[in-house]
């Protein structure tokens, strides 16, 4: 049986924040809040799908800035170093995943930057627009909600969880104790 390749999703953080309405409105209040909301959404997405998510934020304009990589709730969050854009970092990483020996990866890049989409396609990644990612995230969250609704609607009694033979045996024992 063929194993599915491990999937990695690079997210151009500010590109997605500027494209998703709920994050745009959060950004108007506070950029840090918008970043945290995006990371929270992608953390939940990763937990539900098993996809490794790496959210990359530009920090190339920060003088003397060093690259910062941290793990937040299972999501790798990258702040690029001085003079390094999120696009530059993502391109390098896409290329490195293609060269890693012994393991096959399915690499996707979420951005609506047309030029960046073309570049990562040329390096072997699959491009995902901000709109497509939003649709995918919403679909997966909706599937989870439906499953939760089904689980909530089921009766949660002991009798519902027992097979018929065990249930009859238990009922007979209870009746025997009452006699």
UniProtKB/TrEMBL annotation:
<dbReference type="Pfam" id="PF05991">
    <property type="entry name" value="NYN_YacP"/>
</dbReference>
<protein>
    <recommendedName>
        <fullName>NYN domain-containing protein</fullName>
    </recommendedName>
</protein>
<dbReference type="InterPro" id="IPR010298">
    <property type="entry name" value="YacP-like"/>
</dbReference>
């Amino acid at each position: 049986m063929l194993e599915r390749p491990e999937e990695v999703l690079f997210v151009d953080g500010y590109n997605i924040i500027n494209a998703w309405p709920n994050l745009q409105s959060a950004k108007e209040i506070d950029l840090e809040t918008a970043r945290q909301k995006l990371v929270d959404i992608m953390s939940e997405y990763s937990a539900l799908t098993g996809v490794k998510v790496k959210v990359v934020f530009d920090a190339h304009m920060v003088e003397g800035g060093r690259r910062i990589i941290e793990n937040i709730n299972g999501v790798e969050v990258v702040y690029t170093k001085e003079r390094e854009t999120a696009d530059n970092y993502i391109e390098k990483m896409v290329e490195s995943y293609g060269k890693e020996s012994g393991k096959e990866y399915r690499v996707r890049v979420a951005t609506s930057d047309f030029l960046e989409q073309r570049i990562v396609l040329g390096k072997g990644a699959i491009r995902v627009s901000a709109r497509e990612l939003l649709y995918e995230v919403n679909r997966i969250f909706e599937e989870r909600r439906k499953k939760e609704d089904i689980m909530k609607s089921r009766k949660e009694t002991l009798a519902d969880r027992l097979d018929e033979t065990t249930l009859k045996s238990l009922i007979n024992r209870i009746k025997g104790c009452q006699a």
